[in-house]
Amino acid sequence: MKSFMPKALFYYSALASIFITVSIISTSQTLIPVIFAVLFLPVTSYFVIEFFRKMRGELSDTDSKPIKGEGLVIAIIFALLTGLGLRNIYIRTQATPTVPLPQTTSSPLIFLKSPTPEPQDKIEVSITDGSRSVNIRKLPTIYSQKVAEAKNGDIFPYSEKANGWYKISLADGSFGFISSKYTKEVEAK
Length: 189
What we know:
Order of helices and strands: HHHHEEEEEEE
Strand content: 15-25%
Helix content: 40-55%
Number of helices: 4
Strand order of the largest sheet: 6-5-4-1-7
Number of domains: 2
Structural class: alpha+beta
Mean pLDDT: 76
Largest sheet: 5 strands, antiparallel
Low-confidence stretches: none
Distance between the termini: 68 Å
Radius of gyration: 26 Å
C-alpha cells in the first residue's frame, strides 16, 4: 500500500498537469490564465518526461533511462505548447484596444425618458471602497474598453444581469456594462 499511493498520486498529478495546461492554453478567453499556463509549462514538461519514463519502467523490466530521441520528442511537445500559448497571448492582446481612451467628463449622466411609462429595473451605483467613480465598460469584462464613468448614487436602467455584470442603458441610447460589485438594485415604484 505504501508504494501504491505515491505512484497513484504522481500519475494523477502528471495527467492533471497535462490536461489543465493544454485546456487553458487552447480554450481560455482571457489573457491572465494563458500567461500562467505558459509559465507552468516547465512543470508540465517535467511531468510528461517522468510520466513516460515511469510508464516505460512499469511495462518493462529494464530501467527507465532515457531512450534515443526522447529528448527531441519532449522538446517538440514543449515547443508546441509554448507556441500555442504565445499565439493565444498574442491574439488576446490584439483584441484589447491600444488606442488611448477618450477623456470622460465628470458631469452627471442624463437619461432619455422612455415613451412608454413601463417600469424598468434599475440599479444604483454604490461605491464602498473609497473610489470616486466606477468604470462603465463596452463589454462585461475588466479588460474591455471604458466607455464612461459613474459616480456614487447614479441610477441606471438595466436590461440584463449575467456573470456579475449589469447591462445598463446610457444617456445617449447606447449600452454599457457595470460590475455588480459597485451596484445595488433599486425597487421599481
